[in-house]
Design brief:
- One of its GO terms (molecular function) is transcription cis-regulatory region binding.
- It is found in: Nucleus.
- The chain is of the alpha+beta class.
- Among the domains are: about 55 residues; about 70 residues, WRKY domain (N-terminal domain of TfIIb, Single Sheet), CATH 2.20.25.80.
- It is about 30% helix and about 10% strand.
- It is built from six helices and seven strands, in the order ααβαββββαβαβα.
- The chain has a seven-stranded antiparallel sheet, covered by helices on one side.
- A hairpin with an 8-residue loop joins strand 2 and strand 3.
- The termini are far apart.
- It binds zinc ion.
- The structure holds a DNA duplex.
DNA sequence: CGAATTTGACCACA
DNA sequence: TGTGGTCAAATTCG
């Protein structure tokens, strides 16, 4: 078991070297007036991330074998679920997804939650906030879609095999606006996110421990995760379409809480929270109160720069930097730029 | 060395 | 039969 020390050491050195190089670049950028603030901040974040990684490596090999993250949940709102709009439940018309379990036909896993998040990215660094939603995904497929210029990437949660997390997402670059990505999430995270340290914001009482075993998700823990998702969406999202496939069990917006994802945690209190809360509520509440109705909301936020929110319309974003963008994309979301001619003149 | 990605084959469904 | 989604072997990455 002591054989794998070499590689870890190697990676550690690599990480530190990378951090040094990044610092060097930052030094250069500081001397160049044309360098934008965002670029610099990106470098800072990268350097910080490098430090974090290196430290976590050391920490991991030392002790703390049990990550045991904090269950970030704080929901004190009882679900006030009364009769939904329409009939309580007469006939399930959710023919969308059926139980894809050929061996076990007992459980009908229907109504897999699905919501789409259209993300536009333009700054050279916005990608981190956009494509990295704070979860760790593993790509398991990529397919060209008919009528779409760019292929669609399929991702699933990394902890799928070790835990029962069935959350998946698919990223699809917009046809005409390469700066827009359509990210469709499917399923919810049940995994204990063993990453991204959560600051001891406020000792919240855990309502119920998350599923420890590998038992498939039960129709219960829905609200907490949703809150996280929403927060995440808010953090970086632009447009969120919540589709209520499930005819019941919808929750209200929980109190404010920041998940503090990857490395965008510097100054998250810069913008007016009251306004945030307001628009947040005002926008999301309706879509939740009427599950059968899908809502579309537009948001616009930068990781650390300017913050502007808007909804009900398209927000034109002036941006610059495209080379870096594409580069980062391949690194973050890997929506490989392969227009791959062949779909061009394909019309029926 | 293990983990993540790539990429064509495979499969279910309409 | 065609299309969207997944699997898995090969390959790259860290
Ligand atoms: Zn997960």
């Amino acid at each position: 078991m002591e054989n794998m020390g070499d590689w870890q050491q190697k990676t550690l050195v690599n990480e530190l070297t990378l951090g040094r190089e990044l610092a060097r670049q930052l030094q250069i950028h500081l001397n160049v007036p044309s360098s934008s603030r965002e670029t610099r901040e990106m470098l800072v974040q990268k350097i910080q991330a490098s430090y974090e990684k290196a430290l976590s490596m050391l920490n991991l090999s030392s002790s703390t074998t049990e990550p045991n993250p904090r269950g970030s949940v704080a929901i004190g709102l009882s679900e006030s679920r009364h009769s939904l709009s329409g009939s309580p439940r007469s006939e399930d018309s959710d023919r969308d997804f059926k139980d894809l379990d050929p061996k076990d036909g007992s459980r009908k896993r229907k109504g897999t939650p699905r919501w789409t998040q259209q993300v536009r990215v333009s700054p050279a660094m916005g990608l981190e906030g956009s494509l990295d939603d704070g979860f760790s995904w593993r790509k398991y497929g990529q397919k060209g879609i008919l009528g779409a210029k760019y292929p669609r990437g399929y991702y699933r949660c990394t902890h799928r095999i070790v835990q029962g997390c069935l959350a998946t997402k698919q990223v699809q670059r917009s046809d005409e606006d390469p700066t827009i990505f359509d990210i469709t999430y499917r399923g919810r995270h049940t995994c204990t996110q063993a990453s991204h340290m959560l600051p001891p914001s406020q000792p919240l009482e855990n309502q119920e421990p998350i599923n420890t075993g590998m038992e498939p998700q039960q129709p219960q823990q829905n609200l907490q995760q949703q809150s996280q998702d929403l927060l995440l969406n808010y953090r970086s999202g632009l447009k969120v379409i919540t589709e209520g496939l499930d005819s019941h069990q919808q929750s209200v917006i929980p109190p404010f809480h920041f998940p503090s994802a990857s490395n965008v945690k510097v100054e998250n209190q810069v913008f007016p929270l009251s306004m945030v809360e307001k628009s947040f509520m005002g926008n999301y509440s309706p879509s939740f109160l009427s599950p059968s109705t899908s809502g579309t909301h537009y948001f616009s936020a930068s990781s650390s720069g300017m913050y502007q929110y808007s909804f009900g319309g398209n927000q034109n974003f002036r941006t610059s930097g495209e080379s870096e963008l594409t580069d980062k994309i391949s690194a973050a979301a890997s929506t490989t730029d392969s227009p791959t001619v062949g779909l061009d003149h394909l019309a029926m």
